[in-house]
Amino acid sequence: EQFSRWGLFEATSLSQHVAYTLSRINILEKFFRHWEIWLDKINLEKDDIIRKWDQYSLLNQKQVSIQTELGSIIGSALGIDENGFLKIKNKNGNIVSVMSGDVEWIQ
User: Fold this and answer.
1) Within its chain, how far is the Cα of 81 from the centroid?
2) Phi/psi of residue 27, nearest 5 degrees
3) What's the confidence (pLDDT) of residue 63?
4) How far apart, in whole angstroms, are the C-alpha atoms of residue 57 and residue 32?
5) Which alpha helices (DSSP H) does 1-107 contain, by range?
6) Strand order in the sheet with 71-80
7) Which pLDDT score, from 0 to 100, does residue 7 have?
8) Which tens digit of pLDDT belongs to each residue from 20-31?
9) Phi and psi, residue 99, nearest 5°
10) What is the CA radius of gyration of the chain?
């Protein structure tokens, strides 16, 4: 009930959704085979992914406030760096990369 209020679904079992017996080994084998394919694809296209992300980002050149574990950072969003971290130019003119936090668009 709580999950549906947030637009989430409660966890279930795959065996509840199929009409046959599932093998955990086969599921893991298929998962890791596909994981390797996607991981290789992501690594090969990393620069293209970052470029596209920046192209469609609404935050670039906007003033933002970011709440992190270490405190608040306020500055201008500059896009994402090669590791996927958000780049911020703070009030001192320093460029910092932020891995995670709550971002608020303030201007």
Assistant:
1) 13
2) -65, -45
3) 94
4) 31
5) 2-5, 24-44, 46-56
6) 95-98, 86-90, 71-80, 63-68, 102-105
7) 59
8) 888 889 889 988
9) -80, -40
10) 20
> Coil, helix or strand for 21?
coil
Distance of CA 15 to the CA centre of its chain: 29
Q: Distances in Å between the alpha carbon of 75 and those of 37, 80, 86, 106?
A: 38, 14, 11, 10
Q: Which residue has the tokens 């992300």?
A: 53
Q: What is the pLDDT of residue 10?
A: 67
For 38, left (φ over 0), alpha (ψ -120 to 50), or beta?
alpha
Letter for the amino acid at 44? Answer: L
For 48-102, write each residue's pLDDT tens digit: 878 888 888 888 889 999 998 889 999 999 998 888 899 999 999 999 999 999 9
pTM listed for this prediction = 0.56
The β-bridge partners of 63 are 76
Task: Please say whether the dihedral angle defined by the alpha carbons of residues 16, 22, 28 and 29, taken in this order, is positive or negative.
Answer: negative
